[in-house]
C-alpha cells in the first residue's frame, strides 16, 4: 500500500509528517483492498484542515475532510471518518449474499 503526506501552504515540523504516515498505515487493517492513501495537511488562518483520500482496488475513491482549531483534533476526526468508511467498504465486499431456499416438490 502506498501512503503519501502532502503539506500545503504551511510548514509543519518533520515529525508531524512521520506521525501522520504511521497513522495512515494503521488504516490498512480495516480493508485489505486499499491501494493507496494520501493525506493533505493545510493551515488556513486559525484552523487546520486534514483531507484523506483513499483509493481502493474494488470500489470508489473514498474522501474525508476535517477542519478544527487544533491539528490533532482535525487529524483524529479525519481518521475516525475514514475508518468508518473503510469498515463499511469491507462489510459490503465480504457480506455473503445467499439465494433463498426453495422447497422441492
Please describe what this structure looks like.
With 105 residues, this protein is of the alpha+beta class. The protein has one domain (2-93): 2-Layer Sandwich (Double Stranded RNA Binding Domain), CATH 3.30.160. It is 35% helix and 33% strand. The chain has helices at residues 14-26, 71-94, and strands at residues 2-8, 34-44, 47-56, 62-68. The chain has a four-stranded mixed β-sheet with strand order 1-2-3-4, with helices on one face. A hairpin with a 2-residue loop joins strand 2 and strand 3. The longest helix has 24 residues, at 71-94. The chain is elongated. The N and C termini lie far apart (52 Å). The mean pLDDT is 87.
Report a brief summary of the structure.
The chain has helices spanning 14-26, 71-94, and strands at residues 2-8, 34-44, 47-56, 62-68. By secondary structure, it is α+β, with helices and mostly antiparallel strands.
Q: How would a crystallographer describe the biggest sheet?
A: 4 strands, mixed
Structural class: alpha+beta
Give the proportion of residues in helices.
Answer: 25-40%
Q: What is the residue-mean pLDDT, rounded to a whole number?
A: 87
Topology:
Layout: E1 2-8, H1 14-26, E2 34-44, E3 47-56, E4 62-68, H2 71-94
Parallel strand pairs: 1-2
Antiparallel strand pairs: 2-3, 3-4
What features would you highlight for this structure?
alpha+beta; 2 helices; 4 strands; single chain
Amino acid at each position: 500500500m502506498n501512503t503519501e503526506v502532502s503539506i500545503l501552504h504551511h510548514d509543519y515540523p518533520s515529525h508531524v509528517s512521520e506521525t501522520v504516515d504511521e497513522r495512515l498505515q494503521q488504516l490498512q487493517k480495516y480493508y485489505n483492498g486499499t491501494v493507496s492513501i494520501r493525506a493533505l495537511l493545510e493551515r488556513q488562518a486559525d484552523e487546520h484542515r486534514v483531507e484523506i483520500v483513499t483509493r481502493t482496488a474494488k470500489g470508489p475513491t473514498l474522501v474525508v475532510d476535517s477542519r478544527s482549531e487544533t491539528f490533532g483534533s482535525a487529524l483524529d476526526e479525519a481518521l475516525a471518518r475514514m475508518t468508518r468508511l473503510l469498515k463499511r467498504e469491507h462489510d459490503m465486499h465480504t457480506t455473503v449474499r445467499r439465494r433463498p431456499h426453495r422447497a422441492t416438490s
